[in-house]
Amino acid sequence: MDYVTRQFIVLAKKLHKELRKALFDLRYALQQQTEAIREAQKRENKQQEPEQPPIVVQAELHVPENIERDRKTHEDRQHRLQVWIVIGTWAAFVVAAIYAYVSWGIWQETAHQATIAGIAAREARSAGGRADLRAQSQSQEIEKQFQLDQRPFVIATCCRTSDLANNAIPPTIGKPLGANIEVHNIGRSPAFNFVSHYHLLAGDDVATVRADAPDMTKSEGILPQGGPGIFVTAPYVKDTYTVDVSHIDPSEVLRWDGRVPIIVFGRITYDDTFGNHYCTPFVSEWFHDQIWADIPGISIINTKTRRSRKMPNMCPSQMPF
To answer: Between 65-150 and 3-48, two packed helices, what is the crossing angle to 10 degrees?
Structure first.
């Protein structure tokens, strides 16, 4: 409630108090006047009463002029008194009506100001809530952008073929086949829980391509940002999904028989310092010599059935940890 409204209410209350006092004084004065007139009339009537019983006479009554004048003066006084009583009554009614109207106006104004204050309070709370949400959203967006700017970013560069004996040669019929993949962290922070999966398939075996199952535990591997990167080798073996590439059994190694296509695929998973998880899939196909091409979403064609299907998503949609 503003200052003008408060002043208006104080003034109305003061007017109410003064009107009540004025009505009380007027009514008291009228009562006193009425009582005084009644007492005077009683005294006058008492004085005019004869002390002895009136004598019945057969005569014409002549009222003295002074008595007639006093009677007329008394009647005029009574008439004026009645007029003033009527005027006082109507004045009291008018004052009461004015007081009722003023009180009604005060009540209306108070209710209006209370409604406005309630609406303003709700709008202020709503605006404050929206401001808090905007500030929270902006803070989250800034934090997210900061994390993206500072995140690690691991890429896989494919490939250099070899005979698994450190001889970098193109795929050769009758010789073992491997593809060397270079892994770099080109981001701004180390990659934690670094895990890589890589496979090589040739010929009709490419129809069996599938993604590795999600890793059930976290790794202790760390790949620093920058630096020369690391090399991993995807060998051509009987079962690329079960062989331990760190300890390859020679009996598992296959010699290339000239079948194409040759593809290398897999994924690299890692975390940043904030606990965010990332996955880098890669798919490359050999063309000739040492030329490979990254082909995301490659269609795999079975040379026997001539049926094709899309390369599956190498990154799991959910991690178990």
So the answer is: 170
